[in-house]
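Session log. Operator J.P. requested a structure for one protein chain; no other inputs attached. Running the standard single-chain path with token output.
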Amino acid sequence: MPTNVIMPALELAQETGKILRWIKSPGDSVVKGEPLLEIETDKVTVEIEAPASGVLRDVTASVGDVVPVGKTIAVIVAASEATAPPPSAAPVASPSTGASPVKASPLARRLAEQHGVDLTRLQTAGGRIEKADVLAYVEREKSPAGNGAAALTARVEETPTGAHVGEATSARLTAASPKARRLAAERGIDVEVMRGSGPGGAVLAADVAAAAAPVTPTPAVKAPAAPTPAMAGAAQGVSNVWRLMADRMTSSWTTVPHFYLVREVNVSRLKSWLEIARKQTGAHVTYTDLLVRLTAATLAQHPAVNASWKDGAIVRNADINIGLAVALDEGLIVPVLHRADTLSLAELATRREDLVARAQAGRLRPVDIQGGGFTISNLGMYGVDAFNAIVNPPQAAILAVGRIADRVVAVAGQPVVQPTMMLTLSCDHRALDGARGAQFLGALAALIEEPLALLV
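Structure written below.
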């Protein structure tokens, strides 16, 4: 029995995957579990393992192709079947009977019926047509290189009076993510007339949000400004990572009720601890590593902060998994240090270095970005004193860290210059109230100012 190789869903909101390279070629023998190909999603690059042993055949996706999740991209057959001809196409149905002899899922049939797709034109290696096959076919027909990309069909509809009128309309579906369609329906926007920023012009949620944004009219009495080079240039494209970041942050900013707590902390003891930790461990320990260690300890004391707002309820996380906001050229990504409270400083430094290096190289695995319960965003290295970070949903809070700077503070009633750092805790008020947030921030500040309290 042939085994289909499909484009997997590696992330919760993933809709497509891009083929980066085939590790095996058609006709090669493969063993179940060995690397078969490498794909890229919005967040990660990962090797896909062979789902069965046999011979690779019927590869339908090339390097660079963006493929819908669930679509069959190859078949693995038994060695005894490798030389046999591929199964014949399903019988072609006559116009009077439709596509009933074709094997297809109910959802694929419904989509095909809604958008005028003849299922007998679709051929899949597995023999059964799925939703992704219909969407992929529609997208091919829509592209300039497709067969009949400019074709229009006359669709006959029955009016309430029983008369028939001919309506010229496109038989193709505008590619759009489910979230984009849901958002468009809520805002009364027709995605069928939109050209999106996704692969092949697919409409994304960010495109719908941008289309719904109010436009401020230019005063009629003001003459237009002379175009500058920046104004005259073409719009700058964005990566999938940046687009996903924009979508998630827009959703968080518009749906999460934020509030902010700010605390200035004395870091004299923290600086001394850093020097000692580097000497004792031999690892390249950073202030971020120290903050992760102290934050993990504080979260263990205040589990209400290690929580999420999900489906109208507060859900506390079983493990202390801390995400680190990492800025890339392509956008912001948050790899996760899992069970940070169980790691030594040397282990934290090693894992943090590995995560950041692989994030910058685009080599994060799905597990590296999943399960975060709290996030730290440190902009101190950019000379930023303080800032308000946007909550990373569904997490309850995110800690924004500013630079360490010498400031005048009061010590025993006298002005003294001390190194201090500004912390800002952004909270989701649905999952966390001000008192609990303040208690957490106070406990964290106390540990930063006296790290030896960890030993108590």
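Operator note: The chain has ten helices and 20 strands.
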